[in-house]
Design brief:
Layout: H1 3-15, H2 21-33, H3 57-70, H4 73-92, H5 94-97
Helix pairs in contact: 1-4, 2-3, 2-4, 3-4
Bound molecules: zinc ion (ZN).
The site of zinc ion has 5 residues, from loops.
Amino acid sequence: MSGSAQAEIIRLERTRFAPGDLGKALAAWSKLAHTPRKRSPAVRTGCGEPSCCPPEPDEWRELLEIAMHALPSKSARELARIVGPLDSRILDHPALRHNVSPRGRWWHFSRWPWED
Ligand SMILES: [Zn+2]
């Protein structure tokens, strides 16, 4: 990422999120995107209690979406060039592509892979 994009991300984290949040969001989304095709993706990683466990991958993706709309357009495009290929990999995963949410944001998966 360019220096100006990094500076704008740090500014956005100060005003909208917490320091380091965008990096955590990208790491969580990238980890989900790189799940081997034969493995069940870890779409739910904690107990669901916000004060106890870190956000789930789909919540991190929501944060990335907010950031892509809040950043100035050049920086938003830089972030989108990172997020886009991760989205594609996730949508290509056999356990996930049939579970995208039919309403609202696709990354709020309609059901979890192990609920089959
Ligand atoms: Zn917990």
